[in-house]
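Note to self: keep these together.
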Amino acid sequence: MARFSEVDRIEAAIKNKSAKELEWSIWYCQMRQRLPSALKSHVKYWSEMEDRVRQVTEPPVAEVKYPVKKKRSGRGLGMGPVD
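Structure:
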């Protein structure tokens, strides 16, 4: 079965990371999802394809690491007798 040229164009845009082509790819995926005659499986396919394109266009979110206070030893309940 032959592949659609649009799918090849989207995959080439993902590979080359061309901004204009990625923008077109997102538009095309959204358009295919909104078709009144689109089957559930087609909507799922095009939404996954849109997610792939968005992963390339959006930079990865850096995980925030907050500083952690070190706990002092001998603190808390049940850590020894109280004088």
